[in-house]
Specification:
By secondary structure, the protein is of the alpha/beta class. Helices cover about 60% and strands about 10% of the residues. Strands 3-2-1-4-5-16-15-12-8-6-7 form an eleven-stranded mixed beta sheet, with helices on both faces. Strands 9-10-11 form a three-stranded antiparallel beta sheet. It has a two-stranded antiparallel sheet with strand order 13-14. It starts with a helix and ends with a strand.
Amino acid sequence: MRDLHRRAVAATNNGQPVVGGRLIRSAARLLGLPATQPPPEWPAWTDLATRVLGTYAAVETALGNSARGLALLDEADVLVSDAGRGILRQQRGLVLILIGRMDEALVCFDEAIPLLRQAGEFVVLARTLLNRAMLHQYAGRVRLALADLDQCEQIGAGQPEEDLARIFAKAAHGRGQARVLTGDIPGALRDFDAASGFYAEQSVGMLPVLAVDKARALLAAGLPQEAAAELDAALEQFPRSRMNQEHAEAELTRALAALASGDPATARSWAGRAERRFRRRGNETWAAVAQLTVLRADFAAGRRIARVAAEATALADRLTALGLRNDAEIAALLAARARIALGDLDGARAGIAPRDRRAAPLENRLVRRLALAELGAASGDRRVTFANARAGLTQLERHRGRFGSIDLQTGTTSLGKELADAGLAAALAQRSPGVVFRWLDRSRAQAFRFRPVRPPADPETVDAVAELRYLSMQIRAGELSGKPDAHAVKRCAALEREIRAKGWQAEGTDVDHPEAKLREIGDELAETGSAMVCFLADHGALCAQVIANHRVALIELGPASAVAEPVARLHSDLDALCGRQLPPRLDQVIRRSVRTQVTALDSILLAPLASRLGDLDVVVVPTGALSAIPWGLLPTLHGRPVTVTPSSSAWLDAGRRPRRAAGAPLLVAGSDLTHAETEVSSLAPLYPEAEVLTGADATVSATLKAFDGCRLAHFAAHGHHEQENVLFSRLNLADGPLMAYDVQQLSTAPEQVVLSSCDVGQAVVRAGDEVLGFTAALLYGGSRTVVSSVARVDDRTAGGVMLAYHRALSAGTPPARALADAARAEPLMPFVCFGRS
C-alpha cells in the first residue's frame, strides 16, 4: 500500500493524473477507505490513510472532480494525527490552487511549512515551497517566490539522489517562471532547459507543462509565432493526460499568442475555450483572467468598446479581490484605453495610476505608458504623448538589451510597435522635420543599436550544427537525384529548432550606438553628395521623408497597399526569367511585365521625389515590403549609386567605424554552380594576395577561418533565403551550407562582402522594421557593406557584372557607384548595395 501511494504521488507529480488516480484508488480500497475509525490492529493506519486521502483528493481535483476532492479532504481531517497535519494542510492548499482559491491556498501552505519542518517531512516540505512560490508568482511577489525556491533547493541538497533530481528540476522550472516576470528571458530559458533534461527522463508528463511556460517566455520576448508553435504541440498532449487545469492554461496562453500576432478573432476563440474549461472545474480565479483576455481581444478588434470599458472596470475590482494585482492593473488600463476611444477622458484619467509600480511586470508598465500616450493624443497634448511613448520605448530597450540573440532582439512586443506608432503619429501631426526624423528613426531597426553577441558554442550545439550540415548535403543530393529524403528533412527541422532555441539563452549587452541626430545625418549626406529617403507607412498611407542639401521634406505618396502587388509581380517575373531559355514570345511578355512593374513602383515611390533628389547619390531606408525592391532597376535610380540601410542611425554608425585597409581578400566558389569557378578565376588577377577557395577546398571550416575579419570577401555560390527560419539562410559550399547562424560565430565581421548568389539579399521584416536574413546577419555583425541579390540571379551573366564591379572596386570606386556602373550592361540584375557605401 505504501508502494502504491508512492507510485501514485510520483505519477501525479510527473503529469500523469490518470495513472495516479488508478494507483491511489487501489491503495484506498486496500485501506478500506473512506472510514471513520482506524483498525485497532494497525497503529500506522492513520498516518497512511491521511496521506492516501490527501493524494486521492489532489488527483480527483486535477481530473476535474473538485467537489469529490474537497470531500475527501474533509474525511481526512477527521482521521489526521498531529504528526500528519502538515501533510494534510499542504494537500488542501494544492487542491485549493487547482480550483483557483489562491488566498486560502496560501494560508494552508503558510500553516503547513512549519509543521512539515517540525515533522521532518522534507520532501513534502520542498513540494510545498514550490507550490507557495507559484502562488507568489501569480500575485507578482517575485522576491518571495525566489526566496521559497532558494529554500527548496537547500532542502533538496540533503535528500536521496532521485528526490534531489526531481526537487532541483521543479525548482529550476519555478525559477524560470519567476525570471519571466523579471524580464530575464535568457535566464528563464536556461532554467527551463535544465528542467527539461530531468522531465524527458523521469517526468515526460511535465514536458507539455514546461512548453507552456516556455511559450510565455517567448511571448515576453516578442516571438508570438514561436510561442504558438510550442503551445500547439503541448495542446495535442493535454487531452491524453487529462491535465485539465494545465490544458486550460495552455489555451489561455494560446489566446495571448494570437493577440500578440494581431489576430484578435482567434485570440477571442481560444480565451473563450479556456474560460469555459476553467468554469467547469470551478476555478473562478483563472476564469476571470480568461475573461480579461476576451475583453482585450474585443478591444483590439474594435468591438463593443463601451461594453469593454464597463466590464473591464468591474473585472479589475474582482481580480484585485482575488489577489491578482498585475491582472487587475491590466484590466484597469484596458478600461481606461476603452474610455479614451469613447472620448471619456476624465474617466480614463481616473483609471490610470499616477506612477509605475516598481514591481510591476514590463507589460503593465508599457500598457500604462501607452494609455497615457493615447490620452495625450486625445486631449491634444503632444508633449504628454511624446514623453510617455519615449519612456515606454526606453523601458523596452532596456528589456531587449538583456538579449544576446539577434532573434530575440528583433522580436519586439506589439506594445512596442504601438508606442512607436503613437509617437510617430504625434510627430507627423506636428510636422516638425526634426521631430518626425527622431520618431521615424526611433520606430525601426532598433536591434542595430545593440552590440553584437557571439552565441555560446556549447558541445551539444556544435554537434547539432555538424549534423545539420551533413543532412543538408544528403537532402541536396536527394533533390538533384530526384529522390527526396523526407526523414532527413524532418530531422533538419528539429535540429534547426534546437540550435535556434539554444541561441535564445545568450545574455545581452548594453546599447552600443546612440540615436542619430538630424543635423549629423544632414552633414554626412552633404559630405558624401547623397540624399536620404526614409519611407514610412502611417494609417495605410505611404510617405517619404527626404533629406537632401540640408533640407528636409515630408511627402505623401499614396496608399501603401498600391506597392505590394507590383513588388510581388516583379519578383515573380525576375525569377521566371532567371537562367531559363524561354520561347521568344513568352520572354517578351515577361520582360514587358518587368518594365510595367518597375515603372509603376517608380511612379509611386520616386517620381514625386525627383526634384529633391536631383542627381545626388541615394540612401534608401525602406519599410515593410519595400525591403524586397531591387532599387537599381527603377528608372529614376538606374545607373545611380544607391545604398539601402535599415535605419538612419545604422547608416551613420557604419560610416563612423574605422575602415580596415589590411587583410587578404577571400574569393570562394561554391558547389553545384556551373559558372562559379570561372567567376572566381576571373576575379583572382585583380587581387593577387587573395585566398582563393574552389572545389573541394571550399569547405565551411576553411571559409570561416579566412572569412573572419577579412577586408573583402566574394562568394559565387548557390544561395537560399529561408523565409520560415532565416537563421539558416545559406550558401552552398563543398561540404555543406554556410549559414547565417555561422556568421554570428565570427569574432570580427568582414568589412565588405559580395554575395553573387540567389535570394540572400532578402529579409524577413518583423514589426518595427526589424530585419533578419543572411545579409542582415552580416550587417548586425559589423560588416560595413554587403552586395547581394533580392531575387534569383542568372549565374551565366552575373559573372560579367561581378568582374566589372570588382575592377571598379579595386581601382578605388565606392561600392554603390561600382555596382551602378557594372549593372548598366545587364539592366535586370537584382543586386543591391546594403549598409554603407
